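Support case: adenosine-5'-diphosphate complex. Customer-provided input:
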Amino acid sequence: MYAEVLIEYPTKKIDKYFTYEVPLKMRNTLQAGMKVKVPFGSKTINGFVMKITDTFNSDYELKEIVEVVDPELKLNDELMRLGLYLEEKTLCPKISAYQTMLPSSLKIKDNDTNYNFYKTYLMLNKTKKEVLDYLVSYGKENKQTILLNTLLKEEKVLKKDYDSYTVKALKEKELIKEVKEQEYRINKSNLEGLVKHPLNVEQQKVFETVKNTNEFKTFLLEGITGSGKTEVYLNLIEDTLNKGKTAIMLVPEISLTVALVNRFYEWFGSRVAILHSALSNGEKYDEYLKIIRGEVSLVVGTRSAIFAPLENIGIIIIDEEHSDTFKQDNMPRYNAKDIAMVRCKYHKAPLVLGSATPTLESKARALKGVYSHLKLTKRAGFGTLPQVTIVDMLEEVKKKNFIFSDELITKLKMRISAHEQAMILLNRRGYSTTITCSNCGYTYKCPNCDITLTYHKSTNNLRCHYCGYSISKDSVCPNCHEDALNYLGLGTEKVMEELQKIIPEAKIIRMDQDTTSKKGSHEKIIESFKNHEYDILLGTQMISKGFDFPYVTLVGIINADSSLNIPDFRSNERTFSLLYQASGRAGRSNLAGEVILQTYNPDNYVLNCVKENNFNKFFNYEMNIRKILKYPPYYYLVSLKIIAKDYDKSLENATKIANYLRKSISPSSIVLGPTTASLFKFNNTYRFQIVIKYRYDEKLMSVLKYLDNIYLNDKDVNLEIDIDPLHI
Ligand code: ADP
Ligand code: ZN
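Agent response - structure generated as follows:
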């Protein structure tokens, strides 16, 4: 008996199967999908059993498998196939596909740590009657008899609660014994305080439609902020579990997970496993064990939870489907939405993508009927959508209001004195790479690609990193002719200081990278703000999504337009979504909400769509741009990055690749570049970029695979291929 084993070696070069002999003692137990230790060269390393065979033709001597790493952690047939899909779709090495599916605690580096966690208990080793007889004959009271008496009442006690001398003495008398039991680090039973809202008419309709689906089908649930999508998810999952099936619920980030996970524990208690990167390795391992042992039926988690080894999946739900976090930006560059589709197809189950601001791709598919389009158009509770006001900062600057407009300050004071709460979002995206006029808000854009040009200090020019267009930086603003072309940039700390000066009585709490770096700090901030210990929550985009604070009636957004300046064709879409989501934090209960958008571009179309709470209007506008400029969803994209320590080598290879692509792929596809990548010099390497736009191209995948293979073994030049990139 032989096994074909995929070696865990973190380089692509040996991404192929090696044959090993299966030792006698493993012949009945070894299966495909198991992780094993095998001799390789002079070392013993890990590998995955891909296939078990009876015959093997070769003259060289085979080595034997050393041991099975953990017989419980076997990838099932579905996941083994999914690995091949990942390889095919993302051009990643097989081994990295399989590694992605297992929690990090089981990957190469950690393979010698044992994450199983045991507690030791004490139990009686004799019948109760025998122990009672002993106690009577013993005749006095001491620590030993106390322990024995406890064990007469309770079946077992924790060993660590008793002193070792007592335990030792009783063990020697063979009156008690020790037992080890595996414990999970996370133990939640049903949390108290469960409130189930009866679904309203719209929610009920969505619920019924999805619930009655017994085949693979993708639903886009487009529901405005506060429309009660979560309530629908919970009901759908409950229905699925009642049918004896399992469910996966994906959320974009851990910041959203905290509030949501509690909601899931309330409903489903110990039937839930959670998987996300903020768990310790031991916690991840335990949660994974619960899943693989079939002890839970619902997995809630971030991106990689899509690989949870559940059997019999009855539904997958992806909340905030527009979120970029569902795409992994290193190898394998997979999108959890694609994986969800493959898994739902396999299990003949519905897939629900939910958002208030779905991606243009998803919405376009829903409008074409590729996805089923479901809608929630009203706020579920008492809340109504907030009133949005745009404030022109050009006017404010004249009054020397550089950060806060008069209107925002007045309203903040009003809300605080009425014992309501406010949130202030400082939009800091888009500042680091581009030049903006601080007088009129002008930014340089590429006439071909409609993205912001990136400033290169060394040559004092601005370049488009899609098509290579470049112009030199002017000394005065080309629009208003003021000497005010600058990087703009404001930190949350500075903003907080200023605000405290203007409104000394306000209790302000700050949430950004700095204040949330410690484990649990995030939750603390949210908890204390929710408990109304603070009047104002001030933060970066982190505060924009998901939270449901009933006393927040005002949301202020500073530099609302800055993220429009990110040199990426999706920056309109991301800005709309950010501002719309942030606005959605206001007025979520019976208190009416209000939003103030501060901007240097009050006439900007995107901002005005936010003001009107009108996603459809934004959608139509943006689709038109995408169509004209041949971006998704009208075209598909592939991005290639050519990376080398040597500038000339990098450029030379990039040029070669671009020329080769132009010759080899379909003439209807467009090859842009090579240009400098948006992150041009990084880690002492030079990075060039090629972008392919295509609609149908039969040759493309095989050409990409060919190129990928050529550069596999190139020590100096690295080629990174990203299929359906989210950022280019
Ligand atoms: P979304 O995820 O769509 O933004 P949520 O699920 O957070 O919305 O719901 C918004 C608020 O409405 C929550 O406080 C929730 O408890 C409440 N809610 C949801 N469904 C109902 C309902 N059917 N009746 C009353 N309140 C509801
Ligand atoms: Zn361009």
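The mean pLDDT is 88.

Case will auto-close in a few days if no follow-up is received.
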